[in-house]
Amino acid sequence: MTTRAAETSPRVRARIAGVLYLISGQAFSFAEFSVRGKLVVNSDAAATAHNILANETRYRLGFAAELLPLYLVVTFILYDLLKPVNKSLSQLAFVFSIVGCTISAFNCLLHLAPLVVLRGLNSSTAFTADQLPALALMFLKLSGEGLNICMVFFGFYCFLIGYLIFRSTFLPRIIGALLIIAGLCYLTNSFATFIAPTFAAHLYPYILIPGIAELLLAFWLLLIGVNAQRWTQQASAAGEPQ
Fold first, then answer.
1. What 3-state class would DSSP assign to 173?
2. Around Cβ 174, how many Cβ atoms within 10 Å?
3. Residue 205: cis peptide before it, omega within 30 degrees of 0
């Protein structure tokens, strides 16, 4: 019974990670595309302000969805599953993800700031009614830059877990290879945005297509999990507790 539990444990953990990975991805997509993507008009501060105030509940839901700490749990589970492959690299990947999640949490303030600013329309402030929408849009643009900073750390994270999966014996190597490519694309997109924004505009959104590898990993973890026997063998060879 104990042996059987030990064998099924990594598979159960993998499936939990898969569920949370998918929910986390849906929450991010909702905040980024269904909220900011629909309400923010980059060239029109007044229209953006109107959209936010007219859809305040939806906007707040986007903030709440982005703040969910589900990816932290995914990070911990993947660290635990992948450390038999290479503990040091798994720890490094864990750090990159935690830093990215921390930056993302602070970046959420920039998502909420426009609502706070626009609510100042009805109170005495240092800004005029015409200036507040422009200030709100500035916060949203800074939020976009903050997302690019986050993606630098998540790019390194994807690259490292991709390498670990590629070297593992209990997950498909093709998913690992695709994650390595996705990580490199995330890094390229972010640094191109910082260094050459005009060039980066030509890359987006095509350069992010390899990010589908994350979706593949999430579905694999949910539907298949890991090969428990091979995970146990690799963990034993690495001297890791099972």
1. helix
2. 12
3. yes
- Number of Cβ within 10 Å of residue 196's Cβ equals 12
Instruction: Give the tokens for residue 217.
Output: 């990993």
Distance CA 27, CA 165 (A): 25
pLDDT tens-place string over residues 118-160: 886 555 456 677 788 999 999 999 999 999 999 999 999 999 9
Tell me which residue of 163, 16, 180, 22 sits closest to 82, measured CA to CA: 163
The residue among 224, 214, 219 whose CA lies nearest residue 157 is: 214
* Cβ-count burial 7-42 (b if 16+ within 10 Å, e if not): eeebbebbbbbbbbbbbbbebbebbbeebbeebbee
Asked if 186 and 211 touch (Cβ cutoff 8 Å), the reply is yes
CB atoms within 10 A of CB 56: 12
What pTM did the predictor assign? 0.89
pLDDT the model gives residue 3: 43
d(CA 38, CA 84) in angstroms, rounded, equals 43
Place of tokens 């994807």: 158
Alpha helices, DSSP H only, in 119-172?
Answer: 131-167
Domain boundaries, the chain: 8-231
